[in-house]
Predict the 3D structure of the following.
Amino acid sequence: MTQSSHHRRIQASMPLKITHTPIIDQGVAHQKRAEIKAHFSNTYDTYERLFECLKDDEAYYLKPEPLRHPLIFYYAHTAVFFVNKLRVAMLIEHNIDDRIESMMAIGVDEMSWDDLNDANYDWPAVAEVQAYRDQVRELVLQQIDELPLTLPVGWEDPFWIILMGIEHERIHLETSSVLIRQMDLKHVRSHQDWPHYPDDHDAPDNHLLPVAGGTVVQGRERPGSTYGWDNEYGHNQTIVKEFKASQFLVTNQEFLSFIEDGGYLDQQWWTTEGWQWRTYKNAEHPTFWLQRNGQWYYRTMTEEITMPWSWPVDVNYLEAKAYCNWLAARTGKPIRLPTEAEYLRLYDATVGAVYPEWDHPPGNIDLAYTASSVPVDLFTFGAQGFGDVLGNVWQWTESAIDGFDGFEVHPSYDDFSVPTFDGKHNLIKGGSWASTGNEVLRDARYAFRRHFFQHAGFRYIESEHQVNQKFNTYETDELISQYLEFHYGDEYFGVPNFPKACIDAIIPHIDLQNNARALDLGCAVGRSSFELARYFQHVDALDFSTRFIRNAINLVEHGDVKYLIPIEGEITELKSFSLSELELGDRANNVEFAQGDACNLKDKFSDYDLVFAGNLIDRLYQPRQFLQSISERIKPGGYLVITSPYTWLEEFTEKENWLGGTKVNGENVTTLDALRAELKPGFAEVTLPQDVPFVIRETARKHQHTVAQLTIWKKHQ
Amino acid sequence: MTQSSHHRRIQASMPLKITHTPIIDQGVAHQKRAEIKAHFSNTYDTYERLFECLKDDEAYYLKPEPLRHPLIFYYAHTAVFFVNKLRVAMLIEHNIDDRIESMMAIGVDEMSWDDLNDANYDWPAVAEVQAYRDQVRELVLQQIDELPLTLPVGWEDPFWIILMGIEHERIHLETSSVLIRQMDLKHVRSHQDWPHYPDDHDAPDNHLLPVAGGTVVQGRERPGSTYGWDNEYGHNQTIVKEFKASQFLVTNQEFLSFIEDGGYLDQQWWTTEGWQWRTYKNAEHPTFWLQRNGQWYYRTMTEEITMPWSWPVDVNYLEAKAYCNWLAARTGKPIRLPTEAEYLRLYDATVGAVYPEWDHPPGNIDLAYTASSVPVDLFTFGAQGFGDVLGNVWQWTESAIDGFDGFEVHPSYDDFSVPTFDGKHNLIKGGSWASTGNEVLRDARYAFRRHFFQHAGFRYIESEHQVNQKFNTYETDELISQYLEFHYGDEYFGVPNFPKACIDAIIPHIDLQNNARALDLGCAVGRSSFELARYFQHVDALDFSTRFIRNAINLVEHGDVKYLIPIEGEITELKSFSLSELELGDRANNVEFAQGDACNLKDKFSDYDLVFAGNLIDRLYQPRQFLQSISERIKPGGYLVITSPYTWLEEFTEKENWLGGTKVNGENVTTLDALRAELKPGFAEVTLPQDVPFVIRETARKHQHTVAQLTIWKKHQ
């Protein structure tokens, strides 16, 4: 039993008693209420105690990171968050302080779209914020007394908001400790409640130890036994190939070799992003290192100490990545950072009892032992003795954070996760000495920009398996999102899915050949192409818009897609779907998407059994020429299918080129008349024209509601 | 019996036997087929015979009117019309000659939107057109033999198209005779079939004779006993006050006084339009007059003769109007042209048997006697001896042509009447010597631009009753038409009328006061204002758009409106409605429309029992300010009603002014949240928000389908 091993070496010694995160699916309501109350008070207290590490009020207004707010913001922010979320959830009717609440709500970190121009801020006094915090404390305590509480607490329940506020403050407890660590030492003081670990020793040799392959399952069900953030729910399953992992986190000692080998000055080890950051910062060593008189020193949260060589190095992802690239070159091995799944494979293989069920933390975590890192070999896990599988410092992974299948945004905090699903926020795993509450859970998923600092380091792995670096970010292009919803999303006003309805309407009227080939012209984001692929051996799918085609290809590649659609004004909703849930996945690879101009097709697009031109002709600049040329690309006996609402507009088609909707020799010529006149020589009209309605959602309340006409033409033999 | 009187003076003497227009609700089908066949042949023959008055082929290519096509166009046009209409009605599958048919289809007269640039035309040879006409003759004869014929012939029947082609040619028979009359004499020859009347005598004294007031009923029912144009159908009833009418049409003699008094050179007698025309043409006398060596001569269709002083003067409306103004000034009497109804009142009082039931034409009409005018006292009608109540020359009226209630466009000829419903085409009544077929009917309604020449003169009347010169033209402004359809037109997708639904949804929730006052803000074309007027004693209705307000005022003034809505491309549909058919007419005068800015209302818009802001707030530039200021204009205990789909767009409202659909302090704020926050201090929310859907038609196939939210707020007492 590995857990026993560390008990021999270190005693839980922190003066702050950090309570475990509450179990919310068991117990008795009034006891749970008391437990949550204590949990809140403890969190609130601990957060305020952290700020006692600032030497004076002046320190609250300094900015250790130029792109982030001063600490006064964060001191108020966790209280403001309670008020704002209680308001959003309509649990309270009045706010407490307009000024503080509008100033301290957003701008948590660099990733925010907030304007950090100092001129915009006239920060309140610390005492003022303290008075505000006191008011909020009373408010929350009162809410905890009064809000209805039933177990389990679901994520729509009022108490979820209380737990959210607590967990939110625990995140800031850790991130604020990092900001304090980044402050000039003269503004910080040592504090008995926040002692660093006193010892160091020679760094242990690091070895690559084998980790067996296997399946990693992620994704919580609701309601679970503890509070969770939205990005933890859903379903995800990853098959991990066997790999080797470094026994210990990379120590300061180990990292020194990279520095001494000129690693910070050698662009070859760095990603483009990494090199940009390094150059901008002129970084030559880890941010919490400093060199004086040829000696290396180390910055803890509140002190400078001689370099503790056996402690893990604190770096951002970019530095960790550069180190791995350097090490891979030096060793000739495929060294890299683990993915999230690889980390979890190691975790599942080595960590026994899982928080919050353990009695004593099996690692340097949960503020249980000290307010700093400890030697990397102090806490080990599993038979092979892996150090710090959890705790000490967070471990950077190769994985950019993303939602699982079935991801849903929590309605009261819709920008917690979604803005980070951009391929630019990498997951950190395992927690640090400062991680408490939800942060300690196996299922927790925190991600930061790759150049950000946390109490974070890394473990490297050796694997022949390459990481797919392509990230499937969520679609924010309004038109693309509109079309994704149109092709794959909900039905509105009871109108069935249009591309599917079109293909369904065609099939009964055509003779399907074996190995038949179809061409989907104006395929947009591809739904009709996939529907055609149910019946046709090969489908070429073309659109004039590369934006559409890029998205369709992306969809085949990833099998799923996420997109934001407008609800009202700038309020949006994240939606997603997968080809498999629409039963389109099996034959998606039979569809070949490409950019193309329907009026000027390449020669290779020929010999089709069916050409589907869905809502295309009234957007072509030469529709008549299109009709003439397309018939040459259809096999004798093949079909041309046209749908259109015949919305002729001069912005797309010069009036003289409109097929119909015109006066010819003074007489009205409808587009249907014109289609019949144009196609009659070469085609027979297979059946009467059919009306197929469609709805395109613009906002939750506004839609385009259109009725296309579908005609089917069979080319003469 | 007046009819007998003229028989003593003139014998029907024309060599051309023009058949009466066929009765289509009686008879035996095979006989009717033969009758129509003869009628067609006679019309076709007569038309060709008219062109024999041209001296040579060269004459076909000259343009007697610079803004109109040469006669070769008209020679072909009546044949082309048969082919095109048979094609449109899908009675024939193939056309005969693409080139002729596309060149000769449109550009009939100046009012057409065709391009008269000569460079666009490479006219065919006369022989070519003749050959074409021969082919068409065969085609039509064949169609007459083969098309199904049942009696009565309805306007959707195939034979209606045949009759339409015949009547169309009869119109051009007359208008082409005018063009020939306008040609230089050297290109025209006398023709035995087209003799002018040989005699003249001293012009009779003209007197004003009384005509009793009464009701004039117009509007044919379908199917009738003869072919009719679309503008003849529907319902119209006019109460005509007693007036006096000149016994005779104004003779050349009588008109000479105006010329000799300097009438053509004195702007005071002319309308603005008339003076513009006179100046442009430098007209100093009627167009068919010419002066040589101090002598006045007169142009008939094919000859110049010494001035026949007892014949009616041929003038356009502008000249007739100037004469009346001059005569009114000279006599001190309210002299003017009659309206269409006044003309018909005279007609009904004096004309006995009505065409086509008469045996012999009671006037110089139907090509029965001669191919020119005759003295104005040759044919008299009624006990008082009114001359030329019908026949001789057409009589200009003050009335611009318009459709009757229930007007419907004939689907095969949708631009026969609608383009003339523009307030710029005045009706001419009574027919001329060249009028045949439908033109001779009491119910016929032909109208021309006011500066056009026909075989037309005038009779003046004396009446204290002023003519309402305001013409209710049809709306072509696309946005206005869209809103007229939205407010008053058809329902789409089963969604009930939105403004009505809103007011209906409010009424159950409010306490209605006696003599209550309502304000409709953003009233657009006014439907909600009229609906409010059902319940409120006074309604002020404001919109920022003067286009909308102008239209709403117009609607109250006229009680009805016509508008064009798009079907597909440039194909449109004329729609109309009246306030009375929507049962909105009774209280329409309780609505006061005015242009106004909801964000900056004049002081007088105050003390309302209810303010309705329908789909307004998301189009305001200062919605928050609006909410603040509007509450001051509502009485204590009064109501504010807001509907909106909350479609916030930066083009209307700067983002910082959006009420909702925004992130405030990082939290989503919906517009409903914001409304509640803004209005709560002053108002109570009367009931839960209601969803009210609406559909705005863009084309026959494309619509906006939106769901507004309706909230009702009661101001604190």
